[in-house]
Amino acid sequence: MKTMIRSMTAAALLLAASSASAQMTHPSFAGTWVLDVGKSQSTQALPDSATWTISQTGDTVVMDRVNFSAATGNVTIHGRFATDGKEWKNTITQPAIGEIQTATTAAWDGAALVATTGFTVQDTPVIQTDRWTLSADGKTLTSDRKFTADGQDVATSTLVFSKKN
Q1: What stretch of H or E contains 17?
Q2: Beta carbons of 41 and 35 less than 8 angstroms apart
Q3: Can you tell me whether residue 153 is helix, strand or coil?
Q4: DSSP-derived 3-state class of residue 126
Q5: Nearest CA to 65 among 35, 36, 88?
C-alpha cells in the first residue's frame, strides 16, 4: 500500500512539474516584422511604414525599430530589455526632441509580453505601455500601445505586424 501511495505521489508530482513547465514557456517574438498599416489603427498618425527587428535570447529582448513617415523621415530606435521585471535603461533619439533617457520594465502576462517604458519630454513624465501578442500561427505580432502624459491618457494604438522571416 505504501508503495502504491509513493508511486501515485511521484506521478502527481511529475504531472504538476510538467504542467508548470508547460505554463512557463512563452512565445518568441524574434524575427523581422513589417507594419501592416491597413490593419493598424491609432489615435495619432501612424507611420507610413515600420520594420521591427527583434531578437530574443532567454529573458533578454533586443529590438531595432525603423519607422518612416514623410514628416520625420526614417527614425531608428535601438532598445534592450528583459522579461524578468527588472528595469533596463536605454537612450533613444527622437526628431525635434533629441536624446531621451528611458527606463523599461517588462514581464509576462500569460502569453502576452507587457513592457512599460517611462521617460520625460519637456519636463512632462510619459509612460508608454506595450502589450505584445502573437497569432496562433506565429506570423502576426500585435502591439497594443497606450501613452499617458502627466497621468492622463493621451494616445492609443494597435500596431499589427506581419512576419517577414
Answers
A1: helix 2-24
A2: no
A3: strand
A4: strand
A5: 35
